[in-house]
Amino acid sequence: MPSERRRLIRGLVRHYPYVLKNLRAYFNNLYIRHIQRSSVVRPYSAIFYATHKCNLDCSYCTQKNPEVFSEELDTARSIRVLHAIRRGVDTILFTGGEPLIRPDIVELVRAARREARFRDVILVTNGVLLEAQKGILDHLTGLIVSLDALTHDPNGYLNKSAAVPKVLANLEMVRSKLPPRAVTISCVLEEWNIGEAERILEYCIEQGFVFSVQSAQNGLHPNFALLHNPRYRAFVDKLVRLRAEGKAPINGSPRLLRTLLEFQEFHCYPTMFPRVYPNGDVFYPCEPLRKIAGNLLEDGSFAKIFERGRRLYGEIPPCRSICYLFGNVVSSFYVEDFWGLAADTIRR
Questions:
Q1: Residue 331 and residue 221 in contact, taking contact as beta carbons nearer than 8 Å
Q2: Which of 1, 50, 207, 262 lies 20 to 30 angstroms, CA to CA, from 197?
Q3: What is the mean pLDDT of residues 257-261?
Q4: Is the pLDDT of residue 5 over 60?
Q5: What per-residue confidence (pLDDT) applies to 31?
Q6: What is the pLDDT of residue 1?
Q7: Beta partners for 120?
Q8: What is the mean pLDDT of residues 308-319?
Q9: Would you say residue 148 has pLDDT above 60?
């Protein structure tokens, strides 16, 4: 027990910036929820859509161009957006579309890390263009590669399965630049790829990468039929067991995984992870509702934008837990089960 306590203290000291950040966020949100009686919690990290263009055409993607589109600013103005984001949060996640398709993405990520001085800079990619843009790895603290199969299907034009050999080769290159635990392999579950997801999990265990999973969305809703699929239920049970026993690097606590994959009720706090489109537009309360509350180049801060959003659209509506995206469920645990999430993180 004394050794366990010493290990806990060493971990707290080693990661004190994150400890302080999480404690500050917890008490701020406690005040907002119970004193101000609001669900508009303060941002924890931001999601920046670098582009909506993509080199693939995945069926479950919710950010397809031209159905979803926002003007891409030039490099200088995009960096101004990044600085405005930094005034509100210290962690940024670049996503798309496919961010690596943007010609100036290395410069944007470099500016985020070296000029705006984000503590964490994370990129989400399908992995196909990593070799061509490998300079970006010098400026990242985390990389998320989306992969839904390990079986190569050369006939699946514009699908991820057609690009599997290229992505796996690029991941080998990434291992020479980033520690394995800085790399997350994100898998979107559908009826057809449960077996492939099991193979991806084994691949992550072998390589030391973190495995992350969520089910595909059909519009705003997941496929509830998955709950009647015995193979899906068995895979969920396996993930929870491996995570609880610490036998696999899986993103999310056991309870969070159950909530996410068994579509259990949760309360979403979308302003915790504000979403910023390429032109600086910020959504309120969330991107799926398609309501823009302001622009960071014009308003300068999330606080001003969210205050306008409250005036225009009111408090965050009860959505009955319909968007089972990982970030949405995480926001609920950060706000409502902070100590349970913290204890699980420390144990891990």
A1: no
A2: 50
A3: 96
A4: no
A5: 81
A6: 47
A7: 91
A8: 89
A9: yes
Q: Which two tokens stand for residue 66?
A: 């031209």
Does the pLDDT at position 10 exceed 80? no
Query: Residue by residue, what is the 3-state secondary structure of the chain?
Result: CHHHHHHHHHHHHHCHHHHHHHHHHHHHHHHHHHCCCCCCCCCCCEEEECCCCCCCCCCCCCCCCCCCCCCCCCHHHHHHHHHHHHCCCCEEEEECCCHHHCCCHHHHHHHHHHHCCCCEEEEEECCCCCCCCHHHHHHCCEEEEECCCCCCCCCCCCCHHHHHHHHHHHHHHHHCCCCHHHEEEEEEECHHHHHHHHHHHHHHHHHCCEEEEEECEECCEECHHHHHCHHHHHHHHHHHHHHHCCCCCECCCHHHHHHHHCCCCCCCCHHHCCEECCCCEEECCCHHHCCEEEEHHHHCCHHHHHHHHHHHHCCCCCCCCCCCCHHHHHHHHHHHCHHHHHHHHHHC
Residue with tokens 């039929």: 225
pLDDT tens digit sequence for 198-217 = 999 999 999 999 999 999 98
Q: Is the pLDDT of residue 128 over 90?
A: yes
Instruction: State the burial class of residue 275 (Cβ atoms within 10 Å of its Cβ: 0-12, 13-18, 19+).
Output: buried
pLDDT at 338: 79
Ranges of each domain in the chain: 1-37, 42-342
* CB burial of residue 61 (10 Å; 0-12, 13-18, 19+): buried
Give Rg (Cα) of the chain: 20
Distance CA 131, CA 43 (A): 33
Residue 82 pLDDT exceeds 60? yes
Are the CB atoms for 95 and 125 separated by under 8 Å? no
In this structure, what token pair is assigned to residue 277? Answer: 């489109």
Q: Which of 43, 42, 44, 52 is nearest to 277 (CA)?
A: 52
Q: Is a pLDDT exceeding 60 seen at residue 2?
A: no
